[in-house]
Amino acid sequence: MHTPHEELQAKAVELLAKLGGAAPTPKERAVLPPQEMPSQDPRVRRGNMNEVATGYTPEMARLEAMRCLQCKNAPCMKGCPVGIDIPGFLKAAAEGRFDDALATIREASILPAICGRVCPQETQCQKTCTLGKMLKDVGKSVAIGRVERFVADREMASGATAQPVVKPATGRRVAVIGSGPASITVAADVAREGHAVTLYEAFHKPGGVLVYGIPEFRLPKKIVAGEIDKLREMGVEIIPNFVVGRTRKLRDLLGEDGFDAVFIGTGAGLPKFMDIPGENLVGVFSANEYLTRSNLMKAYDGENAHTPILRAEKVAVLGGGNVAMDAARTALRLGAREVHLIYRRTLAEMPARAEEVAHAREEGVIFHLLENAVKILGDENGCVNAIECLRYELGAPDASGRRSPVAIQGSEFTFGVDTVIVAIGNDSNPLLTHTTPGLKTDRHGHILVDENCKTSLDRVYAGGDIVLGAATVILAMGEGRRAAAAINKRLAE
């Protein structure tokens, strides 16, 4: 009896054989079936931290790439924040030239294995895909991210990772604060030009949200570690446990320490709460803390890690974004018998990726839609024992275009839980801005920058979530590329 994975592979091999090695015609491309991504059985994966999707085979990757219509106007590229030559890399992949495909991607992106996994392609490059529009279903667009992931993983598996070319040393020095996607991009692009880069990270491990925020089952940490190692190979110095604004002031980096430019990529790591009664009870976590304990500090590995984390039976997760999905699915893997996700709108308005929502539901997360928490209840010891919610209906659209939830008076109800995880977003940590006079921010604490990512301070640039608010990996990388280009131009003067 064949496993689902073997059946998908057999179908791909059979279809490639029928094509006989010839390039499909445009009509044939349009009717090639989308290649489903093999993955772990939901009943199995909810009990482990291994990656959910197991990845394409070479045959699957070629067939999916063949679906690209090779449009001359390449609308997919307009949807890519870093401007990858998508038709170019898909053409190479369709012909089995996987090394060439990856080389094309790397001209614009240094994190293909990461972006292929966690970027919301369905709202970016795949949203504008001509094939998806022809078929009137973005879910049937070319799976650009999956092919990107395959060619990146293939190179990693071979052990022959290409190293970016670094120009001769210029004698100029750049400090990068933070080590998330924007900072990694800046460090790589600036180091390529021959400038000496020092990257400062507040935690004991570099990687930012890639290591503390995104769970192992979505993004294996060995992949992030591999990308960080590439920075070191390029000559980037990485200093952990260094909090700029506390260990050292930003102005000291420019003055006493002699850096020629500074990039701020500290992200948005200050958790928001709902300001409802009971949020100070034992058993209430921000998603930020919960995921950091599990992801960065390996709390899920009880035999080898000594990080404390509450082992819950019944968990309520408040929110509807990707972080809420990550927290809910992590709670299952940490042994929770029931996980309830509470969101005050419907699935149609939910900001989380459709794939993450589908995976959460497959794994058994119980969705409470058009409901919201109004009070967290505790026992005589100050520990969570229940949550009170209110039911909602949708009214007129709000400023974002989503229909506003309207409370149904008198619809309160209560159910028992022992843990509550608040996943309604993050704000910017004010430490650096408060300790840096003259660094201008908006009312939300986001650093204000111009079109070149330059801040109000000379020689200081910023990008990623500290500028955009909580955004995506690829958007942060796009900011990083713009900032690096501006820094390199400034240092070349």
Give the secondary structure arrangement, pairings included:
Layout: H1 4-19, H2 26-31, H3 42-45, H4 58-66, H5 75-78, H6 86-94, H7 98-106, H8 112-118, H9 130-134, H10 144-158, E1 173-177, H11 181-192, E2 196-200, H12 209-212, H13 221-233, E3 237-239, H14 250-254, E4 261-264, E5 270-271, E6 284-286, H15 287-295, E7 314-318, H16 322-333, E8 338-343, H17 354-363, E9 366-369, E10 371-378, E11 384-397, E12 403-407, E13 413-415, E14 419-422, E15 426-427, H18 431-434, E16 460-462, H19 465-468, H20 473-492
Parallel strand pairs: 1-2, 1-4, 2-3, 4-16, 6-14, 7-8, 7-14, 8-9
Antiparallel strand pairs: 5-15, 10-11, 11-12, 11-13
Helix pairs in contact: 4-6, 4-10, 6-7, 6-10, 7-10, 8-10, 11-20, 15-16, 16-17
Give a structural overview.
The strands form 4 sheets. The protein has a 5-stranded parallel sheet with strand order 3-2-1-4-16. A 5-stranded parallel sheet has the order 6-14-7-8-9. Strands 10, 11, 12 and 13 form a 4-stranded antiparallel sheet that branches. It has 20 helices and 16 strands. The protein has 3 domains: about 5-160, Alpha-helical ferredoxin (Fumarate Reductase Iron-sulfur Protein, Chain B, domain 2, Orthogonal Bundle); about 175-270 and about 430-490, FAD/NAD(P)-binding domain; about 270-425, FAD/NAD(P)-binding domain. By secondary structure, it is α/β, with parallel strands linked by helices. The N and C termini lie far apart (about 65 Å).
